[in-house]
């Protein structure tokens, strides 16, 4: 297992962001300070609740409207996150769920329909008990959230899980995998296997770090609801009929590995990468095909974050979590107006799980020429790309510009 942390800034920076999305993420503007909560908190009357929850959510996600966001989510689910393994492409599995306690009045029919149709997610009204956690969600939530985190006081839980495993377009050869040393940020080191290959690859040598692109094997794409287009570093969410030239195009996943020149250079590199929202798109223009001697550690990431509430609040998303200020009337049935007394609803938990597996596996290569240099040393144009210290990776679907995963590799053995 590899120690991986989602870079909150870069998960929000353009894709997709991981993280592991992950769910896919898009660039979003810096948020204004959230409105202050109501001064009186002795009542949960809807008239005292802040009407800005919807606006804050849309601003946080960089979306012009809820309808536009749903349309974008629909097209990402259909085009980017659809499993292409049967067609030879990466295996991509994702699932999500929204569960609200019955005491809050339940989910609206409109929200339930959008969750299922646009986001391929389950939306249910339940009674939160330990037994429900284990059975009603087929153990998905049980594996992501401790049963201690869900009790009778829990109102609303969101959960998302995504799995990615792709075959390299040009696989590593097992016979070239050899043991090596990975140097951690704390000065320690670990021994593990490094994959190695020498060939011409897309690489960019920037000030203080290098970026390498490793394409995954292509998979066929079925017709979709709309087209995803990149424009000036943004993902265009405007729906339009899919042109016939686009229907048969395959998804094009690639891993971009960002390697600082120095062992302790990750923080500076991340600052540079996250400073501009369009950096991930502009880096492609800097890449050139060059001879590269690549050494990359094998790693598998299982990232499980049982509650993202604190992180999301730090990023400016506060209102949905506030018992006094949250206004989720478009999502949950109202808690007043029908003569019934109901608990007002606020978001209790947000959980995310991501799994990424990186190894030599790929389709059997044909006649592949490996060149070993000796005697006078490497040629002057050779790029040495030895990932033996902490680095960052992005997995992007290049045709849409959606970043599916973002991760830091701090210790590939954990």
UniProtKB/TrEMBL annotation:
> Which parts of the chain are coiled coil?
none
- Regions of biased composition (Basic and acidic residues) lie at 233-243
Where would I find the Serpin domain in this sequence? 40-412
Domain of life where this protein originates: Eukaryota
Q: Which InterPro entries match?
A: Serpin_dom, Serpin_fam, Serpin_sf, Serpin_sf_1, Serpin_sf_2
Q: Which GO terms describe its molecular function?
A: serine-type endopeptidase inhibitor activity
Q: Which segments show compositional bias classed as Pro residues? A: 30-39
Q: Which GO terms describe its cellular component?
A: extracellular space
Regions of biased composition (Low complexity) lie at 1-29
Q: Where is this region: Disordered?
A: 1-49, 224-245
Q: Which family does it belong to?
A: Belongs to the serpin family.
What's the protein here called? Answer: Serpin domain-containing protein
